[in-house]
Every structure is written in structure tokens, then in C-alpha cells.
Amino acid sequence: VTADLPVRLRDLVGPAGVVTAPDQQASYLVDWRGAYRGRAAAVVRPGSTAEVAAVLRLCAAEGIAVVPQGGNTGLCGGSVPDGSGTQVVLSTDRLRAIRGVDRANRTMTVEAGVVLADAQAAARDAGLLFPLSLGSEGSATIGGNVATNAGGTAVLRYGTMRALTLGLEVVLPDGRIWPGLRGLRKDNTGYDLTGLFVGSEGTLGVVTAAVLRLFPAIRRRATAWVGLPDVAAAVALIDLLQDRVGDRLSAFELMSRESVRTVLDHVPGTRDPLPGQHAWFALVELGDTAAGEPLDDVLAATLDDALDADLVSDAVLATSPAQAAALWRLREGVSEAQNAEGPSLKHDVTVPISCLPEFVVRTGAALADALPGVRLVTYGHVGDGNLHYNLGPPRGSDGGELVARADELSAIVYDSVASFAGSISAEHGLGRAKAAAAARSLDPVELDLMRRLKAALDPAGLMNPGAVLADGQGRSG
Ligand code: FAD
Ligand code: MLT
Ligand code: ZN
């Protein structure tokens, strides 16, 4: 790295756009969980697409690796540099403009650094809905959501970020700008480049803006907290709800008893909404865009039938928005609560919804054999087959053995996922944490195609090396 890099970057983006002081760099160099820490030659904060392009041109000319960063809430270590001190962190935190809302086209064009909650608010101000919803939405950015193909709690109704993204503006590793901000619902002019950049985790270029799909606003909601005997009952309840209410089912989140316990222990102000010891819980939400049948009645009647059929052990309906928010706090507090508990092994897996019950039984048994007392903090968006299958140390242990045996324990989870034809990364991406595991689980043809794409777009391997492809290398021939 050239010693005058910060000066040359300052020439491109101005003094406010380069962070060199160690105390000011600190928050850019560690991930949300504190699991990945790195060093950087500079942290650069371009204020426009043209400035992003200038930075990438300079880095390409000097052979300097670039790590794009949005809200730095990613859970796979993809947004922080390595320990070499030679990489540049390119933060999008000055790319914050909402470029426009097209009400008739039901789209919104926003820059990459716009925080998800601000994008939701802009849609709301226009009387519409941008449905992506994550526990991290107060910090995560649209660019990060695109780059990770974020999922969250509304996927069963609206799809992942890929389904919500109609067009992109991307700066390529050589500094060229691809102006693909088309707001078209139909566009068959060749390969789907937008789809390619969604989920590319900063390894193919820097997303600078996106055209997002908007939906009718939700006018009425009904929310319930449900105790369930097992995962089979949860899957049967999703089926029943979908038959009864169709796409008005807007969320179905599952939590094991251990997950709820973790939140109740660590998140201030939370309380158990149901008496009794239930093995599993579901947070169910219906949403309607228009007036019609009262949704509370529909939900209550469906849950009554589920109680009669022994699918549900107990249930409570929220009677105010404040009560609904308290139920959501129980669900969205798990990540924070698990962080507070110390070391854990995070897995973000998906199997066909029909296979979830057997997956949970089989995998739990294999893990209990391998590490007796292992705590299964299992929760997730089961309405789309996605479980956060996290492991905590046995009670009374400091987590040393869990961490030391991480590869072996994760292999048990991933072998089980493979036996159900599932995926080892449902929504968080691969980053650095899961790149090696993905290389083992992907089909060799798939992996080869990915390497060729990487080589075609980033032949020098300068964009976020080590993320997605463990060795950071493409293959051109
Ligand atoms: P960052 O963390 O900054 O970056 C993530 C990756 O994207 C990195 O590889 C980075 O290099 C790349 N990147 C970022 N911006 C750009 C850009 N403009 N161009 C190119 N590459 C870029 N995720 C879910 O999917 N569903 C959830 O329900 C969910 N809940 C969460 C709850 C909590 C409490 C937390 C902490 C995280 C959660 N996440 C969830 C993970 C995370 O919030 C998402 O992955 C989010 O999309 C990351 O956005 P970000 O702006 O923070 O990206
Ligand atoms: C969630 O669904 O809560 C998230 O994806 C975050 C996590 O698993 O930690
Ligand atoms: Zn999730």
C-alpha cells in the first residue's frame, strides 16, 4: 500500500470522506457480534457514485483490496477487513439520498447507504409499503440488504431482497459505472445482472443505488403468540393458516423454549406472555390492505380450531399495537440476548418446510450425542423454511469446548442440512464465516461457475477478498 494513500483518497472524496484516526476508524473495523476484527489502510466514505468510481479506479490501479461496508450489521464477517492493514474499507454512510418515489409505478429509487428503516418510512410517507423487515433495520442499509439478499420476517409474503429489487446502479471493480436503475417488472434483455449483484456480498462491485418494489400499505393487523408442542404442529399450523387467510399471513416466526428463555433473561422489559411450559412458540401476524372481515376474529377462530386439533397448546392475541410490539420484542431480541450470553455457534439454514420437523429431531439428537447438554437456541422464519439453528454451551460451561469443537459441531448441522437437500446459508450470506463450508457443500459445477463469474468481473480479485469464495480467487479458463 502506498504511504500517501490517505492523501490521494482525500483528493478524490474531500477531507470528510477519509477516516484515518484509529479511534474514529474503530467502529468500521469490528463486526456487530465482535467476532471479526481487522485493520485498514484507510476508511473511505465517498459522497457520490462518481466518487465511489474514482476510489475503485485508484484502488484497481494500485492493486489495493476494497471491503464495502454499509450498516455493519452483517452476521458473517463480510463487512470488515482482514488483519493485514492493507485493505480499504469503503463505507456507504454518505450515500443517503432517497432519489425518488414513483407512486404510479410503485417503486422507489434510493442510494445504498439509506438505512432500511428510513427507506420504510419514505414508502410509508407515500402511502405505500416497503416490506423488508429485519431486527437490524435501524442500522442495516439498502446496499447491505441488496449485497446479502436479506430475508427477515416478511419473506413468506413478499420474498427476499432479490424479489424486491428491480434495478441497480453498481460501480464495477475497474471503476466503470453500470447504470441499471430500471424500474421494470418485465425485462428479458439477456442475463439477469440485477439478480447477479443481489447476494454478491461486495465481491463483484459496489452497489450505489437500487430501485425497490413498493406494495399497498397494510391497514389492519392481528398478532398472536402461540404455544406449540413441537415443530410438526408449527408446520401444520402454517398450512392451516395459509389455507384460511392466503397471503394475509404476513409472518410466522418460530422460537424454541430456550430462545425465549434467553430473551427473558437478557432483554430488559420482556415478559412471558403465556403461563405454562411450552416446548415451542410461534409469533403469528396477519395483515390486510383493505377493510373487510375483522382480522382478530379470523385469527382467533383459526387458533381455536388449531387448539381443538391439538396443534396449539395455548395462545394469546395482542389487543393493542403496544402488546403486538412487546411480542415482536421477544422475537427480535434473540440475537442481542445471545450475544449477551457469550459464545455461541450460529447456523442459518433452510430445508423444505415439510422437512423441518424431522430436521429438528434428527439434528438435535446427533448434537446431544456429540456434546451432552448443548443448548439449542433454535428460532427463525419457518414460514419460509429458515431456522437460525444456534448452539450455546452446556449450562455451567464457559463455552471453551463449544468453540474448540466448532468445526465438528457445525459439520453435524451441515451434514444434516445436506441430507434434507437444504442450504447452509438461508439469508445471512457466506461472508468470511461460511465461505469454506460453502465450498464443501456446493456442487463442483456450481462452484466453478461462481469462480468464473468472479474472474470475469473482478479479475484481480480486489473486491472483498475471502468473502463468498474462501480463497478470494476466480477462475477464468
Ligand atoms: P454490512 O454488514 O455492512 O455488509 C454486509 C455485506 O454486504 C458485506 O459483505 C459487505 O461487504 C457487503 N456490502 C454492504 N454494502 C454494500 C454495497 N453498497 N455494495 C456492495 N457490497 C456491500 N439478516 C437477514 O437476512 N434477516 C434477518 O432477519 C436479520 N436480522 C438481523 C438482526 C440483527 C439484530 C442483526 C445484527 C443482523 C440481522 N441480519 C439479518 C443480518 C444483517 O442485518 C443483514 O445481512 C443486512 O442486510 C446487512 O446490511 P448492512 O448494511 O449492515 O451490511
Ligand atoms: C433473526 O432472524 O433474528 C436474524 O436473522 C438475526 C440472527 O439470527 O441473529
Ligand atoms: Zn433471520
Task: Write a structural description.
This protein is 36% helix and 19% strand. The chain contains 18 helices and 18 strands. Strands 15-12-14-13-17-18-16 form a seven-stranded antiparallel sheet, sandwiched between helices. Strand 5 and strand 6 (107-111) form a beta hairpin. The mean pLDDT is 96. D-malate binds at residues 75, 135, 334-335, 388.
Short note summarizing the structure:
The chain is an alpha+beta fold and 477 residues long. It has helices spanning 5-13, 22-25, 49-62, 116-125, 142-148, 155-158, 161-164, 193-197, 231-245, 257-266, 295-308, 321-332, 334-340, 356-370, 400-404, 406-419, 435-441, 444-457, and strands at residues 18-19, 42-44, 66-69, 88-91, 98-102, 107-111, 128-129, 165-171, 177-180, 206-213, 215-216, 220-228, 249-256, 280-288, 314-317, 348-350, 375-381, 386-392.
